[in-house]
From TrEMBL:
<feature type="domain" description="PAC">
    <location>
        <begin position="215"/>
        <end position="265"/>
    </location>
</feature>
<dbReference type="Pfam" id="PF02518">
    <property type="entry name" value="HATPase_c"/>
</dbReference>
<protein>
    <recommendedName>
        <fullName>histidine kinase</fullName>
        <ecNumber>2.7.13.3</ecNumber>
    </recommendedName>
</protein>
<dbReference type="InterPro" id="IPR036097">
    <property type="entry name" value="HisK_dim/P_sf"/>
</dbReference>
<feature type="domain" description="PAS">
    <location>
        <begin position="17"/>
        <end position="70"/>
    </location>
</feature>
<dbReference type="InterPro" id="IPR005467">
    <property type="entry name" value="His_kinase_dom"/>
</dbReference>
<dbReference type="InterPro" id="IPR004358">
    <property type="entry name" value="Sig_transdc_His_kin-like_C"/>
</dbReference>
<keyword id="KW-0808">Transferase</keyword>
<dbReference type="InterPro" id="IPR003661">
    <property type="entry name" value="HisK_dim/P_dom"/>
</dbReference>
<dbReference type="InterPro" id="IPR013767">
    <property type="entry name" value="PAS_fold"/>
</dbReference>
<dbReference type="GO" id="GO:0005886">
    <property type="term" value="C:plasma membrane"/>
</dbReference>
<feature type="domain" description="PAS">
    <location>
        <begin position="138"/>
        <end position="191"/>
    </location>
</feature>
<dbReference type="InterPro" id="IPR036890">
    <property type="entry name" value="HATPase_C_sf"/>
</dbReference>
<dbReference type="Pfam" id="PF00989">
    <property type="entry name" value="PAS"/>
</dbReference>
<dbReference type="InterPro" id="IPR000700">
    <property type="entry name" value="PAS-assoc_C"/>
</dbReference>
<feature type="domain" description="Histidine kinase">
    <location>
        <begin position="283"/>
        <end position="496"/>
    </location>
</feature>
<dbReference type="InterPro" id="IPR001610">
    <property type="entry name" value="PAC"/>
</dbReference>
Length: 504
C-alpha cells in the first residue's frame, strides 16, 4: 500500500483494497494535499483542485508555496522547515490564519490541519484545507455587532479571566484591549469590592443563568486611572468548548443616576414649597378670621344700635358691607378647610363606604327632606383611606348634586365598579350639567360657574374633593353636558381582602 499512496495502512484490515484509500482521499470534503520533506506536492484530491482552481497535473511536483500568496511565501517556507524539524499533528483552527491563493491570483481565508506521515520513503505531511470564507464572514459579522454595541461587552471564563472585550469596554474603562485580555475581571472593580465580587462570581458559575439589566445588579466600575462610576450589568452564560463562560454587558449609568438624583431633589423641593404654601394658606385664613369677625360684629352693632341716626342709603351700604364680609368669611372658612385636608401624614385604613354614606345622609337629612330628594346607591365596598376625608368627599359631591338640580324631587344615584385593585365610583344627578370647557376648571379652588345669588357656594368643594382623592392615590373627573345632568367619577384603592373596615 505504501507503494501506491505513501499512506501507512494503520488501522486497516489486512485484506482491504488499496484503491479504497484513494477513494477515501478523493471524496473527502476538505482539500487534501500531501507534500514531501522538500515541500513538493505529491498528491492532491479533487476538492483541492476545486479550491485552488488548478488541475492535478499543474499541482503535482510543484512547491506547496504556489498555493500561498506571494507576500507570505518566505514566512511559510520557514514554518514548513520548522514543522518538518519537529512534526506533530495540528488541528484545524488552532494556530496561524493564512490566506490561500487561487490560480487566478485571488485570495481566500483557509483553515488547515496538518498531520505528519512517516513512511519508509521518509517524512510526508498531509494538509487538510478548508475554505473558511463563510466562517470568517459569520465571525466578522459577530465582531462588527460586538464592536458597535452601545454597552461594554466582556466575556470571562469560569476562572474570572477576561477572554474578550469590545471597543466600548476600552472606552469605558480606559484600558487598551491587550492589557485586559487574560486579566481577572476584578481589575475593572474598585479594590475594596474585589473579594466580594470574586465570591459573587464563583456563586454565579455554580448556577449560571441569564440576569437582565436593572434587576438589582448595580455595581461600581473602576477605570484605569482609578476613578469610579456606577454601572448596571446583565449577565448571560456562554457555552464554549472550554466550558461555561459568561458574557457581561456593562452600562455606565452615571448620567441616569444624576438624573434620578435631580428628579428626587426636584420632588423634594416641590413637596417643601407645597408644604410652605399650605402652611401660609392655613395661617393666613386662620388669622384673617378674627379681624373679619369683628368687622361683621361691629357693622351689625351699628345697624342694630344706631339705625335711627342713619339715613336709608347709609343703612343700605352698611347692609352691603355686612353681606360682603359674611361672604368673605365663608371664603376664608372654605380656604381654611381646604388647607386642612391632608395636612398631616395620616394612616390609611379600611373604610366601609356604606357606613360613610349613611353618615352623609344623616348629616344632610334636613336638606334631603326639604328638597324631597331621593338618594339611591349600589352596595358600597370597603376602600383604603382616611375616613373623615372620604366622608367629606361623598358629602361635597352629594351636596352639589342636590344643589345643582333646582327642580322638584332631585335624584342622586351612586354606583361603583371594581377595577383591578381599585373601586370606580360615580355620583350622578339630573341637574343643570356643565359645559365641556369647564370640566377641568371646576376642580380648581374658588372656580365657580354661577354668581352666589343664583347658587350659593365658595368654589372650594370640588377642589377639596380633588385634593382628597389625589391624596388617596386616585383620580377624579366629570362627565357632563349642559341640561343633561352630571356624573362625577372618582377612583379609590380597595382595601386588601380580609381586613375589616374600621368605620362605624
Ligand atoms: P361650589 O359648589 O361651592 O360652587 P364646588 O367646587 O363644589 O364649589 O363646585 C364648583 C362649580 O362646579 C360649581 O360652582 C358649579 O358651577 C359646578 N358644579 C359642581 N357640581 C356640579 C353639579 N353636580 N352639576 C352642575 N354643576 C356643578
Amino acid at each position: 500500500m505504501t507503494e501506491t499512496t505513501g499512506i501507512p495502512a494503520i488501522g486497516a484490515a489486512a485484506d482491504i483494497d488499496p484503491r479504497w484509500y484513494r477513494d477515501l482521499v478523493e471524496t473527502a470534503p476538505d482539500g487534501m494535499v500531501l507534500i514531501d520533506a522538500e515541500g513538493r506536492i505529491v498528491l492532491v484530491n479533487a476538492q483541492a483542485e476545486r479550491l485552488f482552481g488548478y488541475t492535478r497535473e499543474e499541482l503535482l511536483g510543484q512547491s506547496i508555496e504556489m498555493l500561498v500568496p506571494e507576500k507570505y511565501r518566505r514566512g511559510h517556507l520557514r514554518h514548513r522547515e520548522g514543522f518538518f524539524a519537529e512534526p506533530r499533528t495540528r488541528e484545524m483552527g488552532a494556530g496561524t490564519e493564512l490566506p490561500g491563493r487561487r490560480k487566478d491570483g485571488t485570495e481566500f481565508p483557509v483553515e488547515i490541519s496538518l498531520s505528519p506521515l512517516r513512511t519508509d520513503r521518509g517524512l510526508y505531511v498531509m494538509a487538510a484545507i478548508r475554505n473558511a470564507q463563510e466562517r470568517k464572514r459569520a465571525n466578522d459579522k459577530f465582531r462588527a455587532l460586538l464592536e458597535t454595541a452601545p454597552d461594554a461587552i466582556i466575556i470571562i471564563d469560569a476562572a474570572g479571566r477576561i477572554r474578550l472585550v469590545n471597543a466600548q469596554t476600552e472606552r469605558l474603562f480606559g484600558y487598551q484591549r491587550d492589557s485586559l485580555i487574560g486579566k481577572p475581571i476584578e481589575i475593572l472593580i474598585p479594590e475594596r469590592l474585589r473579594s466580594r465580587h470574586a465570591e459573587h462570581r464563583t456563586g454565579y458559575f455554580r448556577s449560571p443563568k441569564v440576569r437582565g439589566m436593572g434587576v438589582g445588579l448595580e455595581l461600581l466600575g473602576r477605570r484605569k486611572d482609578g476613578t469610579e462610576f456606577p454601572v448596571e450589568i446583565s449577565l448571560s452564560p456562554l457555552e464554549t468548548e472550554e466550558g461555561v463562560w459568561a458574557t457581561a454587558a456593562v452600562r455606565d449609568v452615571t448620567e441616569r443616576k444624576a438624573f434620578e438624583r435631580q428628579l428626587a431633589d426636584y420632588a423634594e423641593n416641590l413637596k417643601r414649597s407645597n408644604r410652605e404654601l399650605e402652611q401660609f394658606a392655613y395661617i393666613a385664613s386662620h388669622d384673617l378670621r378674627a379681624p373679619l369677625r369683628s368687622l361683621i360684629g361691629f357693622s351689625q352693632l351699628l345697624q342694630q344700635r344706631h339705625a335711627g341716626r342713619l339715613d336709608g342709603e347709609a343703612l343700605e351700604f352698611l347692609g352691603y358691607i355686612t353681606q360682603s364680609a359674611k361672604q368673605m368669611q365663608s371664603l376664608i372658612d372654605a380656604l381654611l378647610e381646604f388647607s386642612r385636608v391632608s395636612r398631616t401624614e395620616q394612616v390609611f385604613v379600611p373604610v366601609d363606604c356604606e357606613g360613610v354614606l349613611s353618615r352623609v345622609v344623616h348629616q344632610l337629612r334636613a336638606l334631603i327632606d326639604s328638597r324631597n330628594a331621593q338618594i339611591t346607591h349600589a352596595p358600597l365596598p370597603t376602600v383604603l383611606g382616611v375616613e373623615h376625608e372620604i366622608v367629606q368627599l361623598f358629602q361635597n359631591l352629594v351636596t352639589n348634586a342636590l344643589k345643582f338640580q333646582p327642580g322638584p324631587q332631585p335624584r342622586v344615584e351612586i354606583d361603583v365598579q371594581a377595577e383591578g385593585g381599585f373601586w370606580h365610583f360615580t355620583v350622578a344627578d339630573q341637574g343643570i350639567g356643565i359645559a365641556r370647557e369647564y370640566h377641568d376648571r371646576i376642580f380648581q379652588i374658588f372656580q365657580r360657574l354661577h354668581p352666589t345669588e343664583e347658587y350659593e357656594g365658595t368654589g372650594v368643594g370640588l377642589a377639596i374633593c380633588k385634593k382628597i382623592v389625589e391624596h388617596h392615590g386616585g383620580r377624579i373627573w366629570v362627565d357632563s353636558e349642559p341640561g343633561k345632568g352630571s356624573i362625577f367619577h372618582f377612583i379609590l384603592r380597595s382595601a386588601p381582602p380580609g381586613e375589616g373596615a374600621a368605620t362605624s
